């Protein structure tokens, strides 16, 4: 079977690479000719562990190719996946122009039965619009070619996308034809041999499933962040509360880590888009509105702690920052808490020296020469007044506290990800501020660290 993936972004590349890995012939299409030129040379535009190797291996086997010609790709393929971007427009709703343009291209170029599958995260009801766009183009050509549309949302986590695709918890497919169901079953068979289900449902429910999943996860995060803030006020320790509630299997340990708010390309956009869908249907989605407002507040919690430590006067203070990406294992900074925190620090007159294991280049697009970029984590602390941790990269978890102490003008750490133990930090003689736990007076007799 030959399939086409339109849109060689994050989702498209992972999808294309993983389908080719199990032996399916895949053509990946993108309108960005520079990107396609690079991909053909084996240069991958994103950082995702394992992706480059997988792409190169399958290109060499002749099962994976890249082109700008959607026409040839569509003509040769039985299944076309749409995985182009749906950026939010000004009012927060998803902009469908790219998705519908691909649908039109399918209608313009298909010569035989084609199954058109939407993988991009699109508002409920979009697959119907895709169907209309394809049919409209067929009508213009005055031809009658059978086709189906399906919705197949992705649940890939950045940094773990290959594993998520190869060993999914579940695959959700919305469709309304037996032919389409049999095609999708055979395409996903290699990924479901270990018993993970393909859940077939109607198209609208599949579209809704994606939003509901991300909204539920975002809700867990905003919930624990709200509780964390209250813990701090009443003198409870959110790290203990988290363990206490997570042990109830109905709640579970995952996705209840407090921090500086969720970021990334999915949660903020999808929560907003779902609120918008509800608005358009005259329904007031109250829980998600609260989820969003807690998240906005949370993104500035760490800045507020730093600012109040210095009594609202950050002029001339130098902050060493560890971590810029919205989470570890990615260079993605979309909606990263670091953007909000660093911008607030700069506006308040502070100097920022930052390090991230992979996101430094990306950060340059956001901050230009407004901050200092360091190639190594301890370099950020030279002449700095404090350390702020904004992403929980593994390499930050066991640092040399001795070096940190030696370099900083005083032992002062603001941790937005709760990666250190408050009591140990006090023993080491640090003033340590984290999320959802009151800080503790540092001990005078400091241990050797
Ligand atoms: C998410 C979904 O997990 C994935 O299924 C969907 O397809 C796309 O969106 P991703 O954006 O890659 O994936 O990131 P994820 O690992 O889910 O984390 C999202 C954000 O939540 C990050 O900013 C992270 O720091 C934050 N988070 C996560 C917390 O603050 N606490 C947690 O307990 C978990």
Automatic annotation (TrEMBL):
Q: Answer yes or no on keyword Nucleotide-binding.
A: no
Q: Which residues bind NAD(+)?
A: 30, 35, 86, 121, 158, 269, 334
**Does the record carry NAD as a key word?**
yes
InterPro entries on file: 6-PGluconate_DH-like_C_sf, NAD(P)-bd_dom_sf, UDP-Glc/GDP-Man, UDP-Glc/GDP-Man_DH_C, UDP-Glc/GDP-Man_DH_C_sf, UDP-Glc/GDP-Man_DH_dimer, UDP-Glc/GDP-Man_DH_N, UDPglc_DH_bac
Which molecular function term from Gene Ontology is one that the record holds?
NAD binding
Question: Which residue intervals define the domain UDP-glucose/GDP-mannose dehydrogenase C-terminal in the entry?
Answer: 320-422
Domain of life where this protein originates: Bacteria
Question: Which function does this protein serve?
Answer: Catalyzes the conversion of UDP-glucose into UDP-glucuronate, one of the precursors of teichuronic acid.
| PANTHER family tied to this protein | UDP-GLUCOSE 6-DEHYDROGENASE TUAD
The protein's name is UDP-glucose 6-dehydrogenase
Q: What is the lineage of its organism?
A: Bacteria, Pseudomonadati, Bacteroidota, Flavobacteriia, Flavobacteriales
């Amino acid at each position: 079977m030959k399939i086409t993936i339109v849109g060689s972004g994050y989702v498209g590349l992972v999808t294309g690479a993983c389908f080719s890995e199990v032996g399916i012939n895949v053509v990946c299409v993108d309108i960005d000719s520079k990107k396609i030129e690079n991909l053909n040379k084996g240069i991958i535009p994103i950082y995702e562990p394992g992706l480059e190797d997988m792409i190169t291996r399958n290109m060499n086997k002749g099962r994976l190719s890249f082109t700008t010609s959607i026409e040839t790709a569509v003509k040769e393929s039985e299944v076309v996946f749409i995985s182009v971007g749906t950026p939010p427009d000004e009012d927060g709703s998803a902009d469908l122009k790219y998705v519908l343009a691909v649908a039109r291209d399918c209608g313009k170029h298909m010569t035989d039965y084609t199954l058109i599958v939407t993988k991009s995260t699109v508002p409920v009801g979009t697959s119907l619009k895709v169907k209309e766009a394809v049919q409209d183009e067929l009508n213009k050509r005055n031809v009658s070619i059978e086709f189906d549309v399906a919705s197949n949302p992705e649940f890939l986590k950045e940094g773990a996308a290959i594993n998520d695709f190869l060993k999914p918890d579940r695959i959700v497919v919305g469709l309304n034809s037996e032919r389409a169901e049999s095609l999708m079953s055979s395409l996903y068979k290699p990924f479901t041999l270990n018993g993970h289900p393909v859940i077939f449902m109607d198209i609208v429910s599949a579209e809704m499933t994606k939003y509901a999943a991300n909204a539920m996860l975002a809700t867990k995060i905003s919930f624990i962040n709200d509780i964390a803030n209250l813990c701090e006020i009443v003198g409870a320790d959110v790290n203990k509360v988290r363990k206490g509630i997570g042990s109830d299997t109905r709640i579970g340990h995952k996705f209840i880590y407090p921090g500086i708010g969720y970021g990334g390309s999915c949660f903020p956009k999808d929560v907003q888009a779902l609120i918008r869908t509800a608005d358009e249907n005259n329904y007031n989605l109250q829980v998600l509105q609260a989820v969003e407002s807690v998240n906005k507040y949370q993104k500035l919690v760490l800045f507020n702690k730093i600012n109040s430590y210095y009594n609202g006067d950050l002029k001339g203070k130098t902050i060493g920052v560890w971590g810029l990406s919205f989470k570890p294992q990615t260079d993605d900074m979309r909606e990263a808490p670091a953007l909000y925190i660093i911008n607030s620090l700069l506006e308040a007159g502070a100097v920022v020296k930052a390090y991230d294991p992979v996101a430094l280049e990306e950060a340059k697009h956001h901050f230009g020469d407004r901050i200092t970029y360091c190639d190594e984590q301890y370099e950020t602390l030279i002449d700095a007044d404090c350390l702020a941790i904004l992403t929980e990269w593994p390499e930050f978890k066991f640092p040399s506290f001795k070096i940190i102490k030696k370099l900083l003008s005083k032992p002062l750490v603001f941790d937005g990800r709760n990666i250190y133990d408050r009591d140990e930090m006090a023993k080491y003689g640090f003033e340590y501020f984290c999320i959802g736990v009151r800080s503790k007076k540092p001990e005078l007799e400091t241990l050797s660290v």
